[in-house]
């Protein structure tokens, strides 16, 4: 499974990329706004740190405008994946972009019907938002399971990118469901590494090691 970072925080991306486990980055307008810096400046830095798919979202809501934005974003770098919202105009844009060979990540997916249409339009990635469904008392992970099953039924090439993941449990469940990619906030990626028994065990090993007589 691939791991993407879901952030526009360049400092975090730079630090976590040193793990050698970050395959890509996803951003959205809210994450960009949080940084308080110009979009292009942030994007250039992210592209220089991670050599993998970098999702950048369009803000137009009509297909022609989305296409203009998407082509400009795609020109920035070969790794750019254009994030398009799952609305009718978005599906039209995705269909056209797939014919032009521009990679897309169809975002704000909240139903299996939407996901099937995105795959049919030729989306490179589909992003079901797990946490936001959980927020309204719908089990978000069920959607990931449905999409994986439907795509397998028809051999769709679209990758399932589990998004809006907020905990290690989300990560494990997405892996069990067969998601191809999990995009994680930096704090969640850090949580995946940590286990209290690892820390206690290591502390004990190191303390015991000090009791070993030195070879002399
Ligand atoms: O990748 C989508 C993600 O950024 C949304 O996460 O936590 O705002 O629902 P969240």
Low-confidence stretches: none
The CATH topology corresponds to TIM Barrel
Q: How widely separated are the two ends?
A: 49 Å
Mean pLDDT: 98
> Gyration radius, to the nearest Å?
20 Å
Tally the beta strands: 8
How would the global form be characterised?
globular
User: How are helices and strands ordered from N to C?
Assistant: EHEHHEHEHEHEHHEHEHH
- Strand line-up of the largest beta sheet: 1-2-3-4-5-6-7-8
Structural class: alpha/beta
Named CATH architecture = Alpha-Beta Barrel
Using the coordinates above, name the CATH class: Alpha Beta
How many individual helices?
11
Strand content: 15-25%
CATH homologous superfamily assignment: Aldolase class I
**Assembly annotation:** single chain
List the ligand species: SN-glycerol-3-phosphate
Relative helix content: 40-55%
Structure description:
The chain is of the alpha/beta class and 216 residues long. The protein has a single domain, classed as TIM Barrel. It is 53% helix and 17% strand. The chain contains 11 helices and 8 strands. It has helices at residues 10-17, 29-35, 39-49, 63-76, 88-99, 112-121, 130-135, 140-154, 168-177, 186-193, 196-209, and strands at 2-6, 24-26, 54-57, 80-85, 104-109, 125-128, 159-162, 181-184. The chain has an 8-stranded parallel beta barrel, surrounded by 7 helices. Strand 1 (2-6), helix 1 and strand 2 (24-26) form a beta-alpha-beta unit. Helix 1 runs parallel beside helix 3 and helix 6 packs parallel to helix 8 (140-154). The longest helix is centred in the last third of the chain and has 15 residues, at 140-154. The mean pLDDT is 98. The structure holds SN-glycerol-3-phosphate (G3P).
């Amino acid at each position: 499974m691939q791991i993407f970072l879901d952030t526009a925080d360049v400092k975090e991306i730079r630090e976590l990329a040193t793990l050698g486990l970050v395959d890509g980055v996803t951003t959205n307008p809210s994450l960009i706004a949080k940084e308080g810096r110009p979009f292009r400046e942030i994007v250039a830095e992210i592209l220089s740190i991670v050599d993998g798919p970098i999702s950048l979202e369009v803000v137009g809501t009509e297909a022609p405008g989305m296409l203009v934005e998407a082509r400009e974003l795609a020109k920035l770098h070969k790794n750019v994946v254009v994030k398009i919202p799952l609305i009718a105009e978005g599906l039209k844009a995705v269909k056209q972009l797939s014919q032009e060979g521009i990679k897309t990540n169809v975002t704000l997916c909240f139903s299996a019907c939407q996901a099937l249409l995105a795959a049919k339009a030729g989306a490179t990635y589909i992003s079901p938002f797990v946490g936001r469904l959980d927020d309204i008392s719908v089990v978000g992970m069920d959607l990931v399971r449905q999409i994986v099953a439907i795509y397998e039924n028809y051999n769709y090439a679209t990758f399932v990118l589990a998004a809006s993941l907020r905990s290690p449990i989300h990560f494990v469940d997405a892996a069990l469901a067969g998601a191809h990619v999990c995009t994680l906030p930096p704090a969640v990626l850090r949580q995946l590494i940590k286990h209290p028994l690892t820390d206690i065990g290591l502390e004990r090993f190191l303390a015991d090691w000090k009791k070993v007589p030195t070879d002399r």
